[in-house]
Structure to design on (561 residues):
C-alpha cells in the first residue's frame, strides 16, 4: 500500500537551528492498516506525515503509494489519493465558505475541475445524508459559513471532507489535539466509525497514549526521527500504558517524560 | 449641478470595472496587487494606440483586455514560480509597465480627439457625452457582473475563492494553488485594463500618469461598497462594488465643488482609505474604553 524507504529530512540545514527530523525512516503500511503513531515532541511524527503528503521535499529516500512512486510529485498531485486532517481546525476548511461549498470542493478531489457549476442539487442530498452520520446536526446548516462552527464541528467536517472521495490513505495529524477532552472523544469515535465503514487505510499521529492504544490495529512509536517500536495484531491488543512506557524506556534509554501523553 | 452628478456617475461606472478587478485580488485572493497601477494605464495606452491606428473601438477594448491579462500573468509568475512576495511582484510589474506603456504610446500623452470611440453610436442617438458614458458603463458592468457571478460559482471559480481563504486546504483537495492565483491575477488585471481602455476613450486621451494612485481609488471604492451595502451573497457583493465606485466619484465631485483644490485629491483619498481600513481597530479601542470605564463604576 504505502512503502516509505530510507527517509531523511533535515530542517534549517547548515544553520545553528539544524534539526534532523527524520533519520533513515522506513515503514511498510499494509492495506487496511490503522496505525496510531506516538512519540514525544520533535520525534518526527508530523514530519513523517507531511513528507508523505508532500508538504515539503525530502532529502533522501523514496515514497511509493500503491506501486506509484510519488517521491517527486507536488503536494496537490499526491492529494488525489490522500485524505488529510490537520491539528489546527482552521487548516482543513475554507472558513468564508459554506459547509456545502466546502464539501463540494472535497468531492471533486482528484477530478479535473471545469466550468460546470460548483455544486449540484444531487450532491446536496448526498452531503445531507453524510452530515447526518456525524450526528452533530450540521445537515440542517448546509449553507452556514464554516467559520461559525466550533473547532470540534470543523474537525468532524474536515474528516468527512477527507473521506468523501475514498482516499487510498487517510493521514490524521494530531487532529484531536486542539479539542477539549469530550469533543476529542467524539471526534475519535467519528474517526473510528468512518475508517471502519469505508475500510480505510489510515495513519493517526497522537500525543495521547491511551488513544494510541485504544485505536487502530498497529502502533508505532517514534523517537528522534526514527521508528523505535512497531507493534501489531495480538501484541497491540494486550498493550497498556505501563507496558508502553517500559518498552519506550528500554529502547530509547530515556523516560517518556511528557505530561500531555500521561495525564490526558 | 446635474452635469457634475452625471459626470461623476459615468466616471464611477467606468471605474467600477477596475474596482471589481481590485476586489478579485484584494478580497478573493487576499493579495494587495499593485500591478493595477500599471495595467490600467496599459489598457488606456493599448486602446489609444489602437484607435489612432484606426482600429475598431470595441476591438481596442478587447486588445486592452489581453494586454492587462499579460501583465497579470507576469506578476503571477513572479509571485508563484519565482516566489517573490505578492506585493513586491506587483510593484515590479508596475514599474516595468511604465516603460512598456511609454513604448506602446510612443509618447507620454496620446490625444484621441479625432478618433472614433465606443460612446459615439450612443451620442449619435442624441445622448450627451456623460449619458452615453453612463449607458456604455451600465452595459459593460451588467455583463461583467453576470459573467463573474457565473464564473465564481463554477468549479474553477470556487477553488479560486477558496485559495484566498485557505491555500493549505485547497492543496489538500488536489488543486495547484499556483495556478489558481495566476488565474485570479490574470482576470483581475485584464478587467483593470478594460476599465483603462474605456476611461481613455471617454476622456479622449491616454496619459502615462493616469494610473498613479489607482489602487487606492479601487480600495476606497471596495471599502465604501462593503461598508454601505454589506450583504451576504456573491451577487449583491458585486453590485455593492459598483455602487461603491459610483459613490466614491460622487463624493469626490462634491468635495471639489465645495472648494477643495484638485491637487489635494490624492491626499484626501489616501486619508479616507486609511481611516476606513483602520475602522475595526478604532471600534475595538472604543469597546475596551467602554469596558474599562464600566469597570471603574
Amino acid at each position: 500500500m504505502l512503502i516509505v524507504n530510507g527517509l531523511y529530512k533535515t530542517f534549517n540545514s547548515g544553520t545553528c537551528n539544524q534539526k534532523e527530523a527524520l533519520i533513515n525512516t522506513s515503514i511498510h503500511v499494509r492495506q487496511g492498516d490503522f496505525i496510531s503513531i506516538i512519540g514525544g515532541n520533535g520525534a518526527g511524527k508530523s514530519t513523517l506525515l507531511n513528507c508523505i503528503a508532500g508538504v515539503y521535499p525530502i532529502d533522501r529516500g523514496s515514497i511509493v503509494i500503491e506501486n506509484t512512486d510519488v517521491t517527486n510529485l507536488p503536494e496537490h498531485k499526491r492529494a488525489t489519493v490522500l485524505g488529510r486532517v490537520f491539528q489546527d481546525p482552521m487548516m482543513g476548511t475554507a472558513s468564508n465558505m459554506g459547509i456545502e461549498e466546502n464539501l463540494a470542493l472535497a468531492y471533486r478531489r482528484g477530478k479535473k475541475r471545469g466550468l460546470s457549476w460548483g455544486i449540484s442539487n444531487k450532491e446536496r442530498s448526498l452531503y445531507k445524508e453524510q452530515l447526518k452520520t456525524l450526528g452533530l446536526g450540521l445537515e440542517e446548516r448546509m449553507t452556514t459559513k464554516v467559520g461559525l462552527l466550533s473547532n470540534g464541528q470543523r474537525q468532524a467536517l474536515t474528516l468527512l471532507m477527507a473521506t468523501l472521495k475514498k482516499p487510498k490513505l487517510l493521514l490524521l495529524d494530531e487532529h484531536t489535539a486542539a479539542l477539549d477532552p469530550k469533543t476529542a472523544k467524539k471526534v475519535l469515535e467519528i474517526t473510528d466509525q468512518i475508517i471502519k465503514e469505508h475500510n480505510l487505510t489510515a495513519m493517526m499521529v497522537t500525543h495521547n497514549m491511551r488513544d494510541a492504544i485504544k485505536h487502530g490495529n498497529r502502533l508505532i512509536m517514534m523517537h528522534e526521527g526514527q521508528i523505535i517500536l512497531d507493534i501489531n495484531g495480538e501484541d497491540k491488543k494486550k498493550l497498556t500504558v505501563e507496558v508502553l512506557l517500559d518498552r519506550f524506556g528500554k529502547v530509547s534509554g530515556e523516560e517518556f517524560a511528557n505530561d500531555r501523553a500521561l495525564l490526558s | 449641478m446635474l452635469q457634475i452628478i452625471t459626470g461623476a456617475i459615468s466616471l464611477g461606472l467606468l471605474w467600477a470595472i477596475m474596482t471589481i478587478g481590485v476586489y478579485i485580488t484584494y478580497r478573493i485572493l487576499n493579495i494587495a496587487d499593485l500591478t493595477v497601477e500599471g495595467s490600467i494605464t496599459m489598457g488606456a495606452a493599448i486602446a489609444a494606440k489602437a484607435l489612432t491606428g484606426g482600429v475598431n473601438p470595441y476591438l481596442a477594448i478587447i486588445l486592452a483586455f489581453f494586454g492587462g491579462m499579460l501583465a497579470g500573468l507576469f506578476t503571477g509568475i513572479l509571485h508563484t514560480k519565482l516566489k517573490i512576495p505578492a506585493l513586491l511582484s506587483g510593484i515590479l510589474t508596475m514599474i516595468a509597465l511604465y516603460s512598456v506603456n511609454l513604448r506602446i504610446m510612443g509618447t507620454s500623452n496620446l490625444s484621441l480627439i479625432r478618433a472614433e470611440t465606443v460612446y459615439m453610436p450612443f451620442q449619435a442617438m442624441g445622448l450627451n457625452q456623460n449619458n452615453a458614458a453612463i449607458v456604455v458603463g451600465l452595459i459593460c458592468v451588467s455583463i461583467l457582473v453576470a459573467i463573474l457571478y457565473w464564473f465564481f460559482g463554477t468549479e474553477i471559480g470556487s477553488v479560486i475563492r477558496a485559495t484566498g481563504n485557505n491555500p493549505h486546504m485547497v492543496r489538500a483537495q488536489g488543486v495547484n494553488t499556483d495556478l489558481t492565483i495566476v488565474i485570479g491575477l490574470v482576470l483581475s488585471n485584464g478587467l483593470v485594463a478594460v476599465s483603462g481602455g474605456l476611461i481613455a476613450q471617454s476622456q479622449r486621451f491616454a496619459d502615462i500618469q493616469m494610473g498613479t494612485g489607482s489602487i487606492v481609488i479601487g480600495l476606497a471604492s471596495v471599502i465604501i461598497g462593503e461598508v454601505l451595502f454589506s450583504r451576504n451573497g456573491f451577487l449583491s457583493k458585486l453590485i455593492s462594488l459598483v455602487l461603491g465606485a459610483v459613490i466614491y466619484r460622487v463624493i469626490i465631485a462634491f468635495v471639489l465643488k465645495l472648494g477643495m483644490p484638485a491637487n489635494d485629491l490624492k491626499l484626501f483619498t489616501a486619508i479616507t482609505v486609511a481611516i476606513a481600513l483602520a475602522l475595526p481597530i478604532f471600534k475595538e479601542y472604543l469597546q475596551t474604553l467602554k469596558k474599562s470605564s464600566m469597570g471603574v463604576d
